[in-house]
Amino acid sequence: MDNRPIGVFDSGVGGLSAVRRLEKLLPGEDIVYFGDTGRMPYGTRSRETIIGYSKEIIAFLLEKDVKMLVAACGTISSNLPDSVVKALPVPYTGVMLPAAQVAAATTSNGRIGLIGTTATVRSGLFGKAIRSIRPETKLFGKACPLLVPMVEEGLLEEDNEIVRLTLEMYLSSIKKENVDTLILGCTHFSLLYNQVDRVMESKVTLVDAAGAAAQYVQSFLTERDMLGDSSRKGKTRFFVSSEPEAFCETAQKFLGRSISADLRVQVLGK
């Protein structure tokens, strides 16, 4: 039994999709979440900047005595070097490898689509991870930089016309490739799951990177006897680097509850 919290981090609100899944799968676990709202978006930044920001967040979460780190961010997952991960004192997972594993096991025709931030698609690491599992698989990536700010602005309504038109623009090239599986490679996009499914006409299997990561965490902690006391109800604490009011508003829409009492501002990099 290990009652230390799980540390989850993201560039903003997207990682809340992983928090929601973790709270459902592991209701007895404490979670510490950090959203770098003051420096997002990460998707258009250089790899060096992404790595630097990620190291600062990891250091902060390690001070909270977390038992595992979860980069609930496709951009961080596809840019954080193995050298950083291997040096960590606690287990780590991003969303990339769990999503790649699910997608590789799901596809029937070996043609997989990926939507993510510019940095995620540019890295090429999703394709490398998938081909390490199924070498014959073809991956068709599309950067969707406008979607992250839309989610951050709370444009989550399923009938939102702006979101629909933006998704149709981005997904048109993916639809032409006859993919049977589509990875939502940015955890922000999990909040647009139903809208993506509608634009894809429910003809492909969607792989939610946040959900895949949460399932991986559940399996990992279970197999290693690192779960907390299941008789207790877990508590989630939230930290952001800026704009707590906006974060609270979006979090309430997505988590279905107010988090204001559990939210603190923590500025990093100073």
Structural class: alpha/beta
Q: Indicate the CATH class of the largest domain.
A: Alpha Beta
The CATH architecture of the largest domain is 3-Layer(aba) Sandwich
* Largest sheet: number of strands, sense, barrel closure: 6 strands, parallel
Please state how the strands of the largest beta sheet are arranged side by side: 4-3-1-2-9-10
Number of helices, where a helix is a run of at least 4 consecutive DSSP H or I residues: 12
Compute the number of structural domains.
Answer: 2
Secondary-structure element string: EHEHEHHEHEHHEHHEHEHEHE
The low-confidence runs, each spanning 5 or more residues with pLDDT under 50, are none
* Distance separating the two termini: 36 Å
Describe the model.
Helix 12 links the parallel strand 9 (236-240) and strand 10. The mean pLDDT is 94. It is globular and about 45 Å long. The termini are far apart. It has 12 helices and 10 strands. The strands form 2 sheets. A 6-stranded parallel beta sheet has the order 4-3-1-2-9-10, sandwiched between helices. The chain has helices at 16-25, 47-63, 74-77, 82-86, 96-106, 118-123, 125-133, 147-152, 161-175, 193-199, 209-223, 244-255; strands spanning 6-10, 31-35, 68-71, 92-93, 111-116, 138-143, 181-184, 205-208, 236-240, 263-265.
